[in-house]
Amino acid sequence: MGYYDYNILPYYWTYAANYVLFDNMFESVLSYSLPAHLYLVAGQSGGYVTGRAPPVFDVKTIMEELKPAGVSWKYYVGTTFPGQFSPALMNEDPDPTDNWVIGNIWLNNTDDSAGSLGPQTTEPNAASTPQYGLWNPLPHIADVMSDPTLLSHDVAGSQFYTDIQSGNLPQVSWVMPNPRVSEHPNAGPVLGQKYVVTLVNTIMQSQYWKDSAIFVVWDDWGGFYDHVPPPMIDEYGLGFRVPALLISPYARQNFVSHHQYEFSSFLTLIENQFGLKALTNRDSGANSFTDEFDFNQAQRAPLVLDPSNPPSWAQQTSTSISSTGLSSTSIASTQTSTSSIPIGPSPASTTPEWAVILGAIAVAAAAIIVVLAVNMRRRPEPPNP
User: Fold this and answer.
1) By C-alpha distance, which of 298, 268, 273 is closest to 373?
2) Are 25 and 358 in contact (CB under 8 A)?
3) How far apart are CA 356 and CA 7, in angstroms?
4) Exposed, middle or buried: residue 283 (CB in 10 Å: 0-12, 13-18, 19+)?
5) Exposed end of the chain (fewer CB within 10 Å): N or C?
6) Residue 262: pLDDT above 50?
7) Are 64 and 280 in contact (CB under 8 A)?
8) What percent of the chain has pLDDT over 70?
């Protein structure tokens, strides 16, 4: 089984060594990007897994609960480096091959070459606002598309940087990448890491760092094998394991979490944080993120990395958590010095499993950032019945 090590993924190894790495995170559905993104906002895909997607998804989203609760949110589309935003790339299909192999033609014996989204009613590259796509289902979700106020929160990725600069970052943010920096084949992880580091640095160097939880996750699995079979909790999934990181001033240091999570877990955390009701059986039954935070520790200083100068190498010890409690493993360091940032075991040592999980990024699809810019010092409450 091949993998990318610290030589290719130095920034992700650094984040994993200094914050939280999840080695038991699963895609919610055994499918591709569009259903995965529906689970990110609705805890379901309306029964859609493959084939021609329905013209409208009649599912309730977390956005519809955030609005009456007075919780601000935005869904940023086509995000890239500051000053490099392109409306054309914002709405570009990340890879039409996905539609052929997974979404439509070869699996469903149709003669339509339009792919899983069907014929485009407008030329995507001509649009200056976010359009319906594999990574942006909101414009085709019934209650969102019929509510101009909700739909107005589906915004161009360039606003992410301006919202931080102007002090208008919402309490909950979904940050979707431009295909060129997404790490979706054929976009590689070298540029993708620099993009993720730029996003994280922007938050860390802002007023929002002290209250934020930043989750970095990849939306589906593009590999050929994983030795961990996906748990089947219903007829749709779970799907394959995907990499995920938590970066926060209250994240445990050098922590590997073995708890089982899926994309609905992000909804569970949001619901618990703001006292909202669950949307579906998925988010009501999903584990939330609690053990990965330590609200008793001093607020951690930001770890600002240089996108043009990968961090150096060292070896220390980290802690990991399982259902039986904490354990110590020789993986990474608890230090956060930017002059010599430890990112894993010595090159001569045996490759740990978390290296393989990070290595999976090489063939995984788009890197997604979910940001909770809210007072994370307040421990999340249990969900409402």
Assistant:
1) 273
2) no
3) 13
4) buried
5) C
6) yes
7) no
8) 70
Of 301, 323, 206, nearest in space to 250 by CA: 301
Region class of 203: left (phi > 0), else alpha (psi between -120 and 50), else beta: alpha
Strand duo 20-22 + 255-257: pairing: parallel
CA distance 223 to 255: 25
- Residue 123 exposed, middle or buried by CB count within 10 Å (0-12, 13-18, 19+): exposed
Structure tokens given for 366: 């788009």
> Left if phi > 0, otherwise alpha if psi is -120 to 50, otherwise beta: which for 275?
left
The residues that bridge with 371 in the sheet, in sequence order, are 173, 214
What are the DSSP calls for 353-366, one per residue?
A: HHHHHHHGGGG---
Do β-strands 25-26 and 154-156 pair in parallel, antiparallel, or remain unpaired? unpaired
Q: For the chain, what is the mean pLDDT?
A: 77
Closest CA relative to residue 49, chosen from 64, 28, 70, 22: 28
Say which residue, 113 or 228, is predicted with more confidence: 228
Tell me which residue of 287, 295, 296, 297 sits closest to 382, measured CA to CA. Answer: 287
Angle at 306 between CA 304 and CA 307, to 5 degrees: 120
Predicted TM-score (pTM) of this structure: 0.81
For residue 71, name the pLDDT band (cuts at 50, 70, 90). Answer: very high
Among 43-47, 133-137, 139-143, 269-273, whose mean pLDDT is lowest?
Answer: 133-137
E-strand stretches of the chain:
20-22, 25-26, 73-79, 154-156, 172-177, 212-218, 244-247, 255-257, 261-262, 318-322, 325-329, 367-373
